């Protein structure tokens, strides 16, 4: 209910639950609560009373934090800042997240990326631990460091810049030796540069702690990376995939053992074998409505076998909704000590490299032993160091006995040895995203965590081996990259000419990565970036190059300035143009010919298709990528080698008939389609038509007369209604209009529909009219004490006032005062009419009456419209409202 209200509610910065009662002294809806931040005083204790620990764990699981007096309190969530996260994680997950304290040890490139992601996510506090100082080597992997920070402690050098990302997160530092007792203060601990011996000690402590403390150890070594997770002996995942429970509309159920349940065939069922489901609204076989979870034995596209004997149940008549039940899952993690011996199944992302994870499992252990014995990393290009590391791997493999690897890939180990000291920013950024998400899972119990070990390697090196002289450091900020790729490739990166399209969440990441890598930082290098959007508050939770003082400024300009602060050598130019056929005078042939590579950071398919077409025409490589919640995709397009982005398309989405959308919706997509259509019709298209008429009445009249059909007549009726019956001159008029809209949408139309087709109506063939997927509707009775109803009227009133240019009074922010104004609206009693035609097929769109001579009616409507125009103030124009997400 109130679907249009939910679409219109973007005007309102605060949201409240439907059904809440409006109080007299309630604060203004538009006024934000001031979020208070208190620094946590974490006292270390080796013994915690079991009851206190359990109470604290329960409070945390319910999104509660404990104050200094031991009392639990709800964590505040800045809904304007975290609106996108709330849509993906949900409110309860966010409450658990903002009550969590996290430790990150090792603030090199990987640690900085993890910290950045968690600060943006909005955890309660982050403690940064590092005993080392910033070196020139670090500047190619950590975007928080500058040359002025060289010699400073890494953790201390990061604090201020991290704090700018989110003032609601408390950020503190530890610069001394870390002990097991320190770990008891946190809900998750992450280590990015910890010896294996110390990691085993800390993990044993976290695993056996009550409650257990999720432990994550991760490393990035050149083009290789590893992640290990231990969330304790019993970790509960409340939601495995974060998706909404799947549903289906029942069409029939057999009286059988097991029973066959068939659903309407207009949508494919998403159930799987073994899923638990519950039934509701089933008529006839009412025994299924008991709320008891039942198991799906065999799932099919439009039906499933239910593991249930229905032979003794009542005969199925009609109706029914089947809904998936998402059960929590308990995972039993092994300790790091155990996983080193029995790692279990490795998580694979590249099935052409089945042998890599077991070998890398040994390689990372061998590297730890090498560092312990030699006190350093292997030197890039040193054959002696590479051979020593390989011998350590072979020795570890031989100690496995029957479980040893049959073959050791020495070429892979050579690559590992040469680059293992380097932390490459692209690798740090990717693993920082993976580990940041694992911390969110650990703190919230949402999404299935990594269980338990993952190794990744990438083929970014040339086929022929690099000369040792090419890997020698040059005493510059890019030495880490040179140790992996060589100085010749580094030079090519610096002289590259790159075009980034979009500077949102992905664009910010790309800019940061390129700046740290030194791309476009040479004398001939050039980076062009374009984006026609401006910064909003909701951007700040993921577009980390922006700050709250940048709100309202151009994204591309601010992002370019921030990238230069990361690497002052970057040569960048920012544009505020949308890349489209309309701007080919800006991005002309010369521009495209001079570009070496294009990177898309777009949010719509139309723009992607255009950029892809230009890249195909000019034969330019394209990096295409996109995100959707916690999901992502990437595609590398190389001319004459791979297919382009537009070569394959998703199948077109199935469009619901308009009669279904308007009169017989049966899923949320139908409701959203209807709401979007009403929004655009009332607030954008009709005001535009009004302005077109007022700008040139004679030309407008001539065009409609020549058209002379039912569509022109319908258009004129809407324009006349807007300037006559529905014309608003005061804000109270807007409230009246909105209140009557509510009555029309959610009461009168439903009453007319059910009057024409009663619940027991049948089709001409004798089949019940209200058969699946049609659902018999019930009219809503408006109540100003129901915030769901009140929000609809408030949002619609504000938008209507905007279209007519009517000032919005301050009292409209107060629910009680606004409710009083709504209650003063006189709502006429509705009587259903006979003879009203309701469309039940795809040939029309909504309720309509019998057609008459359209040309005569158009002439009459135009005459009335001209009379209305004479009553308007000189120069009157409406303000169309364009829908924005």
Automatic annotation (TrEMBL):
* Catalytic activity from the UniProt record: ATP + ubiquitin + [E1 ubiquitin-activating enzyme]-L-cysteine = AMP + diphosphate + S-ubiquitinyl-[E1 ubiquitin-activating enzyme]-L-cysteine
* Sample GO molecular function, one term: SUMO activating enzyme activity
An example Pfam family from this entry, by short name, is E1_4HB
Q: In which pathway does it act?
A: Protein modification; protein ubiquitination
Disordered, as annotated region: 41-77
Q: Which UniProt keywords apply?
A: ATP-binding, Ligase, Nucleotide-binding, Ubl conjugation pathway
Q: Residue limits of the Ubiquitin-activating enzyme SCCH domain?
A: 665-885
Q: What biological process terms from GO does the record include?
A: protein sumoylation
Active-site feature positions: 659 (glycyl thioester intermediate)
- Superkingdom as given in the UniProt entry: Eukaryota
Q: Does the keyword Nucleotide-binding apply?
A: yes
Specify the Ubiquitin-activating enzyme E1 four-helix bundle domain's residue ranges: 327-397
The residues covered by the Ubiquitin-activating enzyme E1 FCCH domain are 256-326
Keyword Nucleotide-binding attributed: yes
Gene Ontology CC = cytoplasm; SUMO activating enzyme complex
Entry-linked InterPro entries: E1_4HB, E1_FCCH, E1_FCCH_sf, ThiF/MoeB/HesA, Ub-E1_IAD_1, UBA_E1_SCCH, Ubi_acti_E1_SCCH, Ubiquitin-activating_enz
Q: What is its EC number?
A: 6.2.1.45
Q: What the protein does?
A: Activates ubiquitin by first adenylating its C-terminal glycine residue with ATP, and thereafter linking this residue to the side chain of a cysteine residue in E1, yielding a ubiquitin-E1 thioester and free AMP.
For this chain, the family text in UniProt reads:
Belongs to the ubiquitin-activating E1 family.
> NCBIfam families this protein is in?
Ube1
Query: Any idea what this protein is called?
Result: E1 ubiquitin-activating enzyme
């Amino acid at each position: 209910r109130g679907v249009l209200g939910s679409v219109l509610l973007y005007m309102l910065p605060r949201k409240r639950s439907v059904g809440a009662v409006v109080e007299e002294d309630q604060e203004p809806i538009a006024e934000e609560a001031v979020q208070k931040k208190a620094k946590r005083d974490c006292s270390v204790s080796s013994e915690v009373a079991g009851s206190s620990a359990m109470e604290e764990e329960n409070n945390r699981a319910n999104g509660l934090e404990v104050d200094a007096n031991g009392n639990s309190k709800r964590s505040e969530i800045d809904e304007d800042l975290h609106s996108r996260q709330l849509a993906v994680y949900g409110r309860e997950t966010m409450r658990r997240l903002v009550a969590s304290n996290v430790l990150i040890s090792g603030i090199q490139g990987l640690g900085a990326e993890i910290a950045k992601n968690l600060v943006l996510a909005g955890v309660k506090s982050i403690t940064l631990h590092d005993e080392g100082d910033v070196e020139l080597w670090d500047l190619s992997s950590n975007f928080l460091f500058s040359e002025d920070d060289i010699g400073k402690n890494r953790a201390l050098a990061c604090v201020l810049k991290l704090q700018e990302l989110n003032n609601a997160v408390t950020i503190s530092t530890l610069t001394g030796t870390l002990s097991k007792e320190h770990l008891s203060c946190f809900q998750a601990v992450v280590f990015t540069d910890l010896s294996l011996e110390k990691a085993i000690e800390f993990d044993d402590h976290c695993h056996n702690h009550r409650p257990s403390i999720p432990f994550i150890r991760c490393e990035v070594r050149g083009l290789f990376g590893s992640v290990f997770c231990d969330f304790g002996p019993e970790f509960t995942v409340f939601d495995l995939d974060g998706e909404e429970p799947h549903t289906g509309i029942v069409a029939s159920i057999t009286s059988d053992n097991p029973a066959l349940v068939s659903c309407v065939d207009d949508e494919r069922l998403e159930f799987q074998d073994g899923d638990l489901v519950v039934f509701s609204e089933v008529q006839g076989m009412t025994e299924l409505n008991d709320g008891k979870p039942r198991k799906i034995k065999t799932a099919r596209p439009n039906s499933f076998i239910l593991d249930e004997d229905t032979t003794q149940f009542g005969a199925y008549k009609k109706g029914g909704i089947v809904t998936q039940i998402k059960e929590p899952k308990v995972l039993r993690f092994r300790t790091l000590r155990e996983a080193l011996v029995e790692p279990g199944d490795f998580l694979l992302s590249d099935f052409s490299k089945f042998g890599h994870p077991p070998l890398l499992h040994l390689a990372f252990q061998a590297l730890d032993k090498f560092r312990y014995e030699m006190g350093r990393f292997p030197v890039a290009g040193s054959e002696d160091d590479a051979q020593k590391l390989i011998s350590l791997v072979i020795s570890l493999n031989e100690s496995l006995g029957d479980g040893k690897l049959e073959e050791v890939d020495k070429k892979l180990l050579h690559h590992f040895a040469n680059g293992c000291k380097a932390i490459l920013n692209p690798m740090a950024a990717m693993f920082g995203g993976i580990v940041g998400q694992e911390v969110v899972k650990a703190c919230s119990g949402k999404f299935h965590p990594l269980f338990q070990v993952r190794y990744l390697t990438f083929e970014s090196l040339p086929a022929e081996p690099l000369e040792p002289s090419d890997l020698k450091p040059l005493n510059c900020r890019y030495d880490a990259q040179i140790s992996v790729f060589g100085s010749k490739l580094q030079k090519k990166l610096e002289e590259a000419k790159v075009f980034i399209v979009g500077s949102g969440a992905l664009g910010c990441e790309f800019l940061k990565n390129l700046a740290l890598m030194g791309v476009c930082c040479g004398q001939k290098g050039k980076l062009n970036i374009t984006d026609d959007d401006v910064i909003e508050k909701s951007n700040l939770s993921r577009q980390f190059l922006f700050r709250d003082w940048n709100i309202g400024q151009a994204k591309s300009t601010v992002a370019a300035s921030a990238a230069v602060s990361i690497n002052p050598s970057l040569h960048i130019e920012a544009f505020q143009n949308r890349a489209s056929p309309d701007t080919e005078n800006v991005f002309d042939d010369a521009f495209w010919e001079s570009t070496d590579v294009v990177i898309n950071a777009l949010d719509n398919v139309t723009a992607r298709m255009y950029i892809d077409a230009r890249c195909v025409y000019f034969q330019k490589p394209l990096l295409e990528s996109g995100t959707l919640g916690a999901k992502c995709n990437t595609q590398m397009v190389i001319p004459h080698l791979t297919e382009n982005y537009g070569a394959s398309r998703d199948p077109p989405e199935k469009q619901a008939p308009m009669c279904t959308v308007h009169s017989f919706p049966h899923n949320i997509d139908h409701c959203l389609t209807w709401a979007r259509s009403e929004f655009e019709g009332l607030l954008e298209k009709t005001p535009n038509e009004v302005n077109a008429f007022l700008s040139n009445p004679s030309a407008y009249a001539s065009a409609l007369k020549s058209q002379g059909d039912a569509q022109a007549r319908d258009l004129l009726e809407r324009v006349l209604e807007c300037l006559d019956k529905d014309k608003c001159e005061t804000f109270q008029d807007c409230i009246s209009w909105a209140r009557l809209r509510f009555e029309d949408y959610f009461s009168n139309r439903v009453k007319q529909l059910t009057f024409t087709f009663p619940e027991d109506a049948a089709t001409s063939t004798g089949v019940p009219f209200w058969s699946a997927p049609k659902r018999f509707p019930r009219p809503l009775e408006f109540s100003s004490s129901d915030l769901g109803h009140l929000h609809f009227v408030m949002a619609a009133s504000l938008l209507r006032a905007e279209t007519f240019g009517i000032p919005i009074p301050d009292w409209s922010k107060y629910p009680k005062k606004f409710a009083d104004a709504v209650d003063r609206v006189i709502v006429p009693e509705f009587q259903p009419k006979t003879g009203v035609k309701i469309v039940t097929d795809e040939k029309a769109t909504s309720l309509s009456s019998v057609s008459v001579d359209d040309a005569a009616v158009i002439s009459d409507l135009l005459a009335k419209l001209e009379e209305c125009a004479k009553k308007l103030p000189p120069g009157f124009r409406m303000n169309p409202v364009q829908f924005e997400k």
